[in-house]
Amino acid sequence: MKKILSLSVAAALSFPSFAEETVINGLDFGPLAQLVGTWKSSDAGGVDVAPGQEGSAAGEGAASVTPFYEVMTFEVAADAKNASEQYLVALYYKQEVFRKKDDSKFHDQRGYFIYDKENQVVYNSFCVPRTTCVTAEGKAGNNMTLVSSNQGIAESNFMSDNASTEDFIMNLNITKDRLVYSQTTSVEVYGEDFSHTDASTLYKVK
Known about the structure:
It is globular and about 55 Å long. Strands 3, 4, 5, 6, 7, 8, 9, 10, 11, 12 and 13 form an 11-stranded antiparallel β-sheet that branches. A hairpin with a 2-residue loop joins strand 12 and strand 13. By secondary structure, it is an all-beta fold.
């Protein structure tokens, strides 16, 4: 399947420009140190554009637009060494997303943001309760573009046959108290290619 990366990469890659305090519990998290804590959407919230379900107002496969608000929490997880060479430190995170119209939760995501200091790489490795998991990676910094790895998408047989994820790309901008992201998940669903997009701005609340 030809890759679809319809999201324009607005955030330019930058070399690291990290906050002074990057060491937590003896581990250097580089630009990820700024994430530790709880973040909530701005008053404007975010926008999700996803393929409509059968019987929905948008109709099967059409663009269904959902304004949302969300809460993301990041905490120190652990360090690890891969193949005796790659040293990593990880933040665990959870992301809960709610429809603005009725406060119902429609997206729940759990994963890790992982930092490789020596190679200046950041990974976002996460799963959603649709039997799909993704690992994306990119150059570390306050402005990052993370793209799904060569074998960075795992999914159930049902999803492979009916709503397969082909690509994932995320643009992320981190400052001391503001987090801005936009992302596209390219999927094949209802026999068509669809670019499922999300964008939001969050502020640290604690």
